[in-house]
Design a protein that fits this description.
With 383 residues, this protein is α/β, with parallel strands linked by helices. The chain is built from 13 helices and twelve strands. The chain is globular, with a radius of gyration of 32 Å.
């Protein structure tokens, strides 16, 4: 942002000085904003840099700019000799880099940079979670194509997404990134029957499954060696992340990213989508993720399932703790049992955690009954 207030009188005086000294004003522009702050971009081309009048004009221009508190960039005079004649390039330039105009250099560079970062993202599995992610991808200016077992053509069209019922047609679009949003149980069969050979040779392949060692091993076994692999786990879903992703954790592991700078940049651009949405980025190995997830996510789902099976009802004297338990049921019990079974089946740490949970419950129950039996015995012998 440029400091200072630019009145029309100051601008006219500056233009008048430039015109008197045979300067050509390329553009004097006021950017959109509040009336009290006007910004302008000036590009002055000097055609007689060695004349006394021009040198005097340059000093006046610099003085005026300093008076307006305007930051200028000066380009030195350059010459190119061709035979006996001397060819003179534009010798003097004053340019405001912060004037946000449609044809400003900075604006052009920003637009070009955004276009370079735009990706074509292919989504396999356009269910609830696939649609949930796709909305943010589209909002960030990326092109999205999708394929799924069901027909989601109408929903995809409403979101500005190309939907392909045929996986071959999907692959012919050659997306930069392919993200697998299928269920844990169907991932292997989906991948084995997918026409991977029709994709680009250096495609970035991702998953968002709740377990990580399983897709990592599956991808390294089935995907071509020249494919990049990025394992992701957004630790949130359509319910917890419907309003904002701010401070919600995204766990990722760059399993295999090519040494080419363009491939590394593509991976960074994709991760930037989540970072720009405010996610807390957590880089973690797939093995460590599953170890921690078993003692957190799987236990959470297990307790939620147990409480959901009990069919807890709201009472007139419910405490905050009780309401928290009912909220836990809403966040877990409503998920499909297929998801819960996948958390158990495809995380080798889940069995250990389930045993620990059973042992803890048995211990608490034993303490209760031991104390009860002791009291009963005391009552019996006291009599």
């Amino acid at each position: 942002m440029l400091p200072g207030v630019f009145t029309l009188a100051k601008i006219r005086r500056f233009v008048k000085i430039c015109q008197k000294r045979r300067k050509f004003v390329y553009g004097i522009l006021n950017s959109p904003g509040t009336p009290s702050r006007k910004y302008l971009e000036l590009l002055v081309l000097t055609h007689r840099p060695h004349s006394i009048s021009c040198k005097f004009a340059l000093r006046r221009v610099r003085t005026e700019l300093q008076a307006l508190m305007f930051t200028a960039q000066f380009t030195p005079i350059t010459f190119q000799r061709t035979g006996t004649k001397t060819k003179r390039h534009h010798s003097f330039r004053i340019q405001a880099l912060d004037a946000a105009q449609p044809f400003d250099d900075e604006s052009k560079l920003r637009t070009t940079l955004e276009q370079q970062k735009a990706l074509t993202i292919g989504v396999i599995g356009f269910g609830n979670f696939g649609q949930f992610l796709t909305k943010r991808f589209v909002q960030r200016g990326h092109s999205v194509i999708a394929t799924s077992r069901g027909n989601y053509s109408e929903k995809a069209s409403d979101m500005g997404v190309k939907f392909f019922q045929d996986a071959d047609d999907f692959c012919e679009e050659h997306p930069d990134v392919v993200i697998v949003c299928t269920s844990i149980l169907s991932t292997e069969s989906t991948l084995r029957n997918f026409p991977l050979q029709r994709l680009k040779r250096n495609t970035l392949f991702c998953d968002v499954l709740s377990v990580k060692q399983f897709p990592k091993q599956l991808f390294t076994q089935l995907l071509p060696d020249n494919f990049d692999i990025l394992c992701l786990h957004p630790m949130f879903g359509p319910d917890s992340g419907k309003d904002s992703w701010k401070n919600l954790p995204l766990v990722f592991d760059k399993v295999r990213i090519g040494q080419d700078s363009l491939r590394a940049e593509r991976c960074a651009n994709f991760l930037e989508i989540f970072e720009s949405e405010g996610c807390r980025m957590v880089e973690m190995s797939c093995e460590e993720h599953d170890r921690q997830a078993a003692s957190s996510q799987f236990i959470t789902h297990t307790v939620g399932r147990m409480l959901g099976t009990m069919e807890l009802a709201e009472t007139t004297i419910s405490t905050k703790g009780f309401e928290s338990l009912r909220s836990l049921v809403d966040n877990t019990y409503n998920d499909s049992f297929e998801l819960y079974y996948g958390l158990f089946m495809y995380n080798k740490n889940a069995t250990t955690e389930l045993s620990r949970l059973e042992f803890a419950f048995a211990k608490v129950k034993s303490e209760l009954f031991d104390r009860l039996h002791e009291r009963i015995r005391n009552d019996v012998f006291d009599e």
